[in-house]
Amino acid sequence: MTLRLGKILHSPVTLVAALVGGAATGFIAPEQAEAFAPFGRMYIDLLKMVALPFIVASIIFSVRSLIHDPRAKEYLAKVVLAIATVSFLSVAVAGILSLAFEPGTITDPQARVALGHIVSREGSIGTDLQMNLFDKTSGVEKRLIDHLVDLVPSNIFQALAAGDTVKALIFALLFGLAVGRVPGNVSDSFAHSLDTVYRACIVLTRWFSLLLPFVTFAMMAEQAASVGLHTLRLMFGFLAVFGAGTLIFAIANILVLAARSRRSPWAVLRAHQDVIFMAITTRSSVACIPIMIDTLTQKLGFRAAVVELLVPLQTALVRAGPIFLLTVGPIFIAQLYGKTLSTGDLVLVGFMATLLGPTSVGTTGLMTLSQVGIVCGYLGLPFEAAFALFIAVDAIADPLRSLMLVLTINGATGAITPREAAVAEAVTLPEVAGPLPVPAE
User: Fold this and answer.
1) What is the CATH number of the domain that holds 200?
2) pLDDT single digits (tens) 143-190
3) Residue 165 belongs to a domain
4) Which residues are within 8 A (CB) of 154 and not within 5 positions of it... i.e. 6 or more apart?
């Protein structure tokens, strides 16, 4: 009975019905839909509750195992290549789609008036956030070295309590390197403890995934209610660019995973159904990390020790969704105000988007949107007024960014990681032979 109920709740039909039903409820009865908001926030908190201990346990254990793997340096070199490739493709696809669709070019006078009303209604929000981007007292922006210093966790327990994913990631990497240098007969008991934490987090994530249809309905209802059909029609071009970009990246990464896992694209897509719906509903790549790892290791058969290291690491570094936004946003604003961007301007937009992409880790959707203002500042574009337009449709654009992000992270991880069967043929060490291995005494 329990197994049958689980299959029904995880069925694509059930999840799509919840998605469509929630969106319809939000558009038709927005006031009632707002009542579902607490359930969505509670579900995201549950996932984040599991995500940080999961990240710390999996990375420490994975680094410990990979220290003894002769291919470890090769994996890290491929991560650098994946970051460069994804960043370039994100900028290229976003730029081509923006210049082809011209979402900011509005010829209908009534549409321009309606957009002006949105700006007037939300203008104070944009002003407040824009002012917070700069320190008025010093008159200068924060230097790059200051951002790097802020990443060092002076108190790891404080970082964990605050949910600071990047600081937890840095601590786990350094601690894993240190544990890897401890003799095996001493560190084995600690490895067993990490294995227990990891598996407990996986069990909790699977339990939480049973709630996914209900949470999908609740969160889609809330998001649809916050947007409204009128705003959706006015910003259709902007959302169409995001939709097309998400579809391109989804197809590309599904094909990469299909080739690497030696499965059909349909099988890979089915394996990712929970990842897709969780990304859309939670809008958090960090919250999706446990189920992303579970999908790659248990459903697609990639080597667990490598996946458990690369997925959290690439979540911080492979930022397709934010880079896509930081490229589309300034081009949209330039088109909205009738300014033609030169080739040099477009190169600057791509360069700045690539640099700012990793800084979006752990930030809210509004903070990611506010970074568009940094790029606009270099181009002399008015950002505050247009910021209100982005806020108006972020309830739809943010899930698309998150979906693009998690699929690209999984695709990049699958492109680097060998399959378990391939590892078993080439490597006989028990420390790298299976998911979360523990060396025999």
Assistant:
1) 1.10.3860.10
2) 556 656 666 777 777 776 766 666 777 787 788 778 877 877 777 788
3) yes
4) none
